[in-house]
From TrEMBL, chain A:
EC number: 4.3.1.17
Enzyme class: lyase
Keyword Iron-sulfur attached: yes
Cofactor: [4Fe-4S] cluster
Annotated source species: Marivirga sericea
Protein name as it appears in the record: L-serine dehydratase
InterPro entries from the UniProt entry: Fe-S_L-Ser, Ser_deHydtase-like_asu, Ser_deHydtase_asu
Pathway annotation from the record: Carbohydrate biosynthesis; gluconeogenesis
Keyword list, A-Z: 4Fe-4S, Gluconeogenesis, Iron, Iron-sulfur, Lyase, Metal-binding
Alphabetical list of Pfam families matching this protein: SDH_alpha
From TrEMBL, chain B:
EC number: 4.3.1.17
Assigned keywords, A-Z: 4Fe-4S, Gluconeogenesis, Iron, Iron-sulfur, Lyase, Metal-binding
Reactions the enzyme catalyzes: L-serine = pyruvate + NH4(+)
Name under which the protein is recorded: L-serine dehydratase
Cofactor(s), names only, from the UniProt record: [4Fe-4S] cluster
Family: Belongs to the iron-sulfur dependent L-serine dehydratase family.
Keyword Metal-binding: yes
Keyword Metal-binding carried by entry: yes
Matching PANTHER family: L-SERINE DEHYDRATASE, L-SERINE DEHYDRATASE, BETA CHAIN-RELATED
Signal peptide: none
Enzyme class, UniProt record, top EC level: lyase
Amino acid sequence: MSILFSEFKEWKEYCEEKGVKLFEPVLEYEKDQKGKDADFVWENLQKAYDVMRDAVKTGLEEDMQSRSGMINNGAKKVYQNPLTVLDPNFQKLIARALAAKEVNSCMGRVVAAPTAGASGILPGTMFTLQEIHGLEDRKILEGLLVGAGIALIIEQKASLAGAVGGCQAETGSAAAMASGAIVYCLGGDIDQVFNAVAITIQCMLGLVCDPVAGLVEVPCVVRNASAAAIANSSAQIALSNVSGVIPVDECVDALGEVGQSMETKYKETAMGGLAMTLTGQSISKKVLIQDIEMLEDEDNGE
Amino acid sequence: MAERSSIFDMIGPVMIGPSSSHTAGVVRIARAALKVLGGIPDEAIITFYNSFARTYEGHGSDKAIVAGLLNYKTDDIRIKKAFELAEEAGLKYTFKSVGSAGTYHPNTIKLHLTKGENKVEVIGESLGGGVINISKVNGFTANITAASHTLIITAKDTKGSIAFISNIISNDAANIATMSVSRKGKNDIACLAIEMDTGLKTITLEYLKSLDWVMDVIYIPDIDM
């Protein structure tokens, strides 16, 4: 029987009872549910991680200008800036998250993790973590499995889609996956991993999806950078045994509740927030196609 | 509950940006239409409806649809250069935008494709997450996802034809997942769109084509392969 945990509590109990690591039941789930062997899962995780690293590289090396012009090689500018706000690692983290997400905005190849709009967060955080701590690829892949387990629970209890739960559902879930993966990879225990997820959700809660001109560019790209930063701040807090107080399962419930009560104009419709600002509206006019044939009511396209 | 998610829905799919409904789904609609036509078209008239009518250019759905018509997959980095590559391949294309098509899904695309004497019309909807529905093929209701193996049979509307065809498919050990039947007029032409969990042998397809009351058989193997 394949195990799909509906709560973090169950996941923890299962691992403690069987004496297994967090990633192991996620691997078992995929093997049983999809009829694949472990080698298949590891190979495809490696492929996904390779695509993530390539996206970071592409975003830092190739021309990244979107058709709308709103995205214009921002990651490179951050990466090359001689003025670093904190230490160079923080600068690199931000540049890498931006880079992978810019590749997404500019029609390059990315891993939707969990969605295309949040495709810069895991690449930025995992690449940087691996570099700083000299981790093996295998450890990062285990972290990605933990991240997948986190997303599987959020998908059931709340949502991963901006159109359903706002930006908190997309970049919030990606940051939660990244934060849990970071703590796992650095040897944190189950409580620390889940506490990192809880704190990350607390930080991302309420974020609306308000894309300018409906494009996956502004503010999506910069939010991938801030989500990567929050994943790290939450991991630092959790690894120091500072409790988020509200348990992770209740934080996910709150994510779902806030998403449900969010108005439609804040759910990817480009009808609210930054999309409705004066500048947002004028960009929208410029970018969207205006020459549209409108049909009469009775002629519904048939 | 719907089919359970894979971990590769969480860490994946690997795709070309910016959005699964505007790029991956659009590429898949074009690939399905390409299989219906039976090859890369000489000419394509592409109509974007409703929400797509305004946003297709900003999201690069125009490049995605042309890339799909060139038989590129959803993770192919050449999608970005689809216009240049279409020119090399001799594919001519034109775009149209139509708003307020009330009976159509918000993200609908209609494709008129021509290859030599062969012409097809396919209407597809991009439902989100790269999932699609091919709602119509040559005017007949199809409602196929093109995610498994699909058979579209146009035949004279005769008694017992559905049972006959189902029997042939079951003899090839294929399990039918969904089937939709539509027809033009009583005892006129019927269209069967059948989705199966596994593929069919060439001999089975040839047999179906050889039946005198069968007019056309289109077989679409998994479009992501």
